Amino acid sequence: MTPSNPHPDPTALPDPTASPDPIASADTVAPPDPTTPLDPTTPLDPTTPLDPTTPLDPTTPLDPTTPLDTTAQLITRITSELGACLGRVTLRGSRRTDPDRTPVPTFPAPAPHAPPPTPVPASPPALVLVAHGSRDPRAHRTVTALLDLVRSLRPGLDVRLGHIELNGPALDETLRGLPADGPGAVLVPLLLSRGYHVKHDIPAAAATAAAATAALGSARPLRLAAPLGPHPLLIEALHTRLTEAGWPVGAAVAGHGVVLAAAGSRDPDSAVDTRRAAGLLARRLGVPVVPAYAAPTEHTPTTVPAALRALAARGVRHAAVASYFTAPGRFATQVADAAPWLAAAPLGAHPALAALLLHRYDQARSAAPVAHRQLASA
């Protein structure tokens, strides 16, 4: 019996005549011969090791110059390069600031709360133009043209018309037609001074309309604007009408004067306002201006003929009559017939008058709703 050698010679060649070790042959798999081509019809054995010199760590990028010997190496390279590329971006698609770091799963941030809706601007109150009314059909046409001019200056504004008397629609009818729960309205008198209509008729109509709205459980604020005059915009309109009638343009001319003809009123405040307007016009023209009235009262006693005599006593040889009325009518015709020289047309649909209506509207709109028999500040 040949004794076993506990220290075999590693350089010794195996004995080709020795019988194979059954245990070794069962546990040991011979590496593939690289010179033998693979049969494409034969599936790869997953237990077959690849070339031990080729790294298979999928996290280690492969050298693109390294030849690929197997399909597994090709898949390994694709996986490695794809992982490297995906590691440079987040799940949102943005580039990472550190592309070499280990990819960390990211999740979309929670959607921020939606911003509060932008509040819709409240609709402005309507502008209700309160005209006196006249039997002369030219008056209604003039007022309608003035309303159109106001609308053109303030597109989108709800502009309505109401009359104190003689014409329709009546003021109370116009106020009833306002939306019950709307923004309300500002009542702007188409009147040139303070007087009974401004202090009593218009506030009473507004109070009645407000009471009716409150009885229905609705809120529809109404505001009262001041009368138009006196104001420099009215003076500009008067100057335009005088020049249209032939008043000399340029420096003041000696021997010229103007009668400012208004309607007249029992209210002394009306006379104060008209005298103030006459003073503004005198400064604008540089000539004497005397107020006069078509319907004289104890507070407004001067007639147009009396005013003309007063100017003549002051050396005025050329006296013109400025019609201090908003529209044609009986009074405007009456004072024009008394003019010895020039007679200007009423203010009418003048841009300055339209701008003044909006100015009074804005003044009253910026204030709190007023009570009965109160007016917004002039």
From TrEMBL:
> According to the UniProt entry, which residue ranges have a biased composition of type Pro residues?
1-19, 105-120
SUPFAM superfamilies per UniProt: Chelatase
Q: Which InterPro entries match?
A: CbiX-like (IPR002762), Sirohydro_Cobaltochel/CbiX (IPR050963)
Q: Name one Pfam family in it.
A: CbiX
Where does the source fall among the domains of life?
A: Bacteria
Q: Quick check: keyword Kinase in the entry?
A: no
Query: Where is composition skewed (Low complexity) in this entry?
Result: 38-68
Q: Which UniProt keywords apply?
A: Lyase, Metal-binding
Query: Looking at the keywords, is Lyase present?
Result: yes
Q: Where is the signal peptide?
A: none
Which residue intervals make up region (Disordered)? 1-68, 90-120
Protein name, please?
Sirohydrochlorin chelatase
